[in-house]
Amino acid sequence: MGFSETSLSGTVPSEMGRLQSLESLVIGHSKIGGTVPSELGNLSSLIWLVFESTNFSGSFPSEVFLLSNLRALQVFECPGLKTESVLHGVVRNMHKIERLGLGRGKPGRFISVPTEIARLTNMLSLSLEDFQLNGTLPSEVGLLTKLTRLRLHENAIVGALPTEFLKFSGLNILDIGSNQMEGKLEQSLFSQLTQLDVFSINGNWFSGSLPTEVGLLSSLRKLQLHNTNLSGTLPTELQLMDKLTSLVVMNTSLSGSIPSKLSSAILPPQELKCFGGECYKVATTSLSACHGTRLCGCSCDPCPV
């Protein structure tokens, strides 16, 4: 059952809890609001529950955490809904869940990722964006070995990337941008996570060089390194990444040139110029990057210093 992108308003009736055979409930981009009825905890067949861009208010009902068949839960952009209990409620009760998305809401306070998250061994996609997370990432996250997507963008997470991340051999998306993480990017990170499609660490304090092993990420489309303390020469192994369509390196101390093979593969020669926004000069070399997500090669027009 879906109530998405409609002009419907009002509240969700408590009688909806009588729909024992309901498997999917999606309420998004609508004016539906009020409190979320606790009777939703009676939907014993529910597999998929999504609240996105709604006017819900009050607390998230704990009864939902008892839905043993639920495989996907998303609560996103519901600013009036108090969601501080959701992460812990899921971790303690919903061990079969495969997809969890929480963010851009009203957690109410900073929270840390609980070590008990290790119980969610069926997790395929974990998205906790702009969710007021702080502290370090527990090593227990590495036990979620089935993960294909991990999005922790825009929080206050500190510390280094846990070495346990190397167990995510099937990971396609790793987005930890806009946090306060630090440390060096280890060679093993790229030699193990070879299925990555998106690697985003922008807006952190990572330092050191970009390992040459980055060239092993043959499936990578987006590499976002901007606003970090990375330094050194951009490795020529980037030219091995034939599928790369977005390389963002502005506001770093990286130097060198974008390999011509990579530049010509991504954009036609006539488009190899700084376009689509403000352009930056990186260090004192020919490497430049546009503000945004498009790539500029070493044949760019001169950038303002």
TrEMBL record:
Pfam families: LRR_1. Keywords: Kinase, Receptor, Transferase. Signal peptide: none annotated. It comes from the Eukaryota. GO terms for molecular function: kinase activity. This is Leucine-rich repeat receptor-like protein kinase.
